[in-house]
Specification:
Elements (H helix, E strand, L loop, with lengths): L18 E3 L14 E3 L4 E7 L4 E6 L5 E2 L2 E4 L10 E3 L1
Antiparallel strand pairs: 1-7, 2-5, 2-7, 3-4, 3-6
Length: 86
């Protein structure tokens, strides 16, 4: 399948082009920095952002929570069914 967007540079406001399952891990960064997170059940998600800040955020199911996360921590994360949007 061909895409009309293949040669364009992405902007933060562009929609996601990839979704991947996230397994929270205290020791490893994600394979891709996200533009948003999505969860199956509500709860806290401890993240390290692209700039290195670490904090807990509350994410609700059905929402694409805009966030450039490079790590999702197992410790402190209570939400389940995490997906990263890129």
């Amino acid at each position: 399948m061909s895409s009309d967007y293949g040669n364009r540079h992405s902007r933060p406001s562009d929609p996601a082009i990839r979704i991947f399952e996230i397994t929270p891990d205290d020791d490893s960064d994600l394979a891709h920095v996200t533009i948003a997170l999505n969860v199956a059940t509500p709860g806290a998600v401890r993240v390290t952002t692209e700039d290195g800040s670490t904090s807990d955020v509350m994410v609700h199911p059905g929402d694409a929570f805009p966030l450039r996360a490079r790590r999702v921590w197992a410790t402190g994360t209570t939400a389940t069914g995490l997906r990263g949007l890129v």
